[in-house]
Amino acid sequence: MSFVLSHPLLWSALLLLADVLIWHLSPAQHRVVRIGIRLGLFLSFSTLIINAGISPLLAPAWPDDSVLQLGATALAILWWVYAARVLTVLIGLALLRRVGHSGRLLQDVIGALVFLIAVVAAAGYVLELPVKGLLATSGAVAIIVGLALQSTLSDVFSGIVLNTTKPYQVDDWVAIDGIEGKVTDIDWRATHLLTSAGSTAVVPNSVAAKAKIVNLSRPTHMHGVSISIQVPNHIRPRRVLDALDRTLQGSSSLLLSPAPKAVLKEAGESMSEYVASGFIADLGKKGEVRNQLFDLAHRHLEAAGIVRQLDASGEPTSRARTLLEDVKVFRSLNAQERDRLAQHMTAQQYSAGQVVLDLDEVADCLFVIATGVVSASVPDGNERIEAGRMGPSEVMGEQSILDDIPSEACFTAMTSSIIYRIDKNVARACMEQSGQVNNALHKLQAVRQKNSHSALLARPAQVKKGGFLGWLQNR
């Protein structure tokens, strides 16, 4: 022990070297172990210099021995720097557990303040410098530097506010000052966004703190989606709204609560603008759902006889003949073949909740939806789950037409619907005349069987409880 105390500089240097080597060579994922070792080495370093008669709170007391005086002064200053470093890593560990990646900026600022306090304390206690004068001079310099770096400091402190209040986090989709993108990083000066065009937008933190921020990722499991449709003014709004209501019911991706809705937004001189909106659970499907809603709106408006062009004109055709233009399985037929097929189509009205084609039923015809929404449900044990929803120009009963196989799903009208029936013999004759119709029906059957087997029930997300204590811990 006497040998250790007689050579404090040597052993202190060895402890500091061991700290540096262990910190850089040990695995980064073992963060708690590394910090524990650093804390243990710091306590050993403190014990060593105190037992050697060196106090970080007092100036060294060897004025006659310049070498010893210089070494003791260096060890005392190193103690303050070492203490500041240990304290910053402990604060970093605490912040990491509470605020994660977004607390990095706050951790850096706190670390800078800790080191600043350590430097001032070392100057006052160890070097016995006039700290009051130093602080006064530093204050004047700080004012000058602050005025020169006003914009930068504004960004820094705005970044601290953003990291503390958390209006957005890394990986959130946000719109800041008209710029929409995914947050990739929040640093000292700015927030970095990856836009939908694949470019990077850098928004200064001071701008973000003052701007209107729309966080598209919150709430986590509810995101708005809407479409806008323009229709000529001479069409009665109730007809358009009914068609758009059926459009919203035709999408199973929309959440039931809050309920989707269609409204008349604005009436212009010649056209009226209607908006259909709802909410989805997955933000990544927003574009896909919007495209689906536009397609459904077109089909339901057309099925309701609503022409969206002001100067629409043409030869009048039957409703059945017009419907065949949009049925995919009959696209290979020429105009004359569609005319003949339309003559064998009979319309039937179905009310909401009425079964169109039941499970295990062998249909005697091919069904073609003209108006309304039909839900297809498949068995799942003792229950039935919805596999999909269908709208105008879609067909049902293809299994019975192809192979006299019973229906593997139950088709139920969700709204008042008009459905055309094509007799089985007529449909089969059409298949014999056109091999492409036969292939299209087989492909449709395969796709629907795949969809019915992959239909899953989504589990509701658990909502975490909050409170004042939780708010403090997360900050």
UniProtKB/TrEMBL annotation:
A Pfam family it matches: cNMP_binding
Keyword Ion transport carried by entry: yes
InterPro entries: cNMP-bd_dom, cNMP-bd_dom_sf, cNMP-bd_ion_channel, LSM_dom_sf, MscS_archaea/bacteria_type, MscS_beta-dom_sf, MscS_channel_2nd, RmlC-like_jellyroll
Protein localization: Cell inner membrane; Membrane
Residue stretches making up the Cyclic nucleotide-binding domain: 329-424
Protein name: Small-conductance mechanosensitive channel
Transmembrane segments: 6-25, 37-58, 70-96, 108-127
SMART domains found in the cross-reference section: cNMP
Keyword presence, Ligase: no
Major localization listed first in the record, in broad terms: membrane
Taxonomic lineage: Bacteria, Pseudomonadati, Pseudomonadota, Gammaproteobacteria, Pseudomonadales
GO cellular component: plasma membrane
Top-level taxon: Bacteria
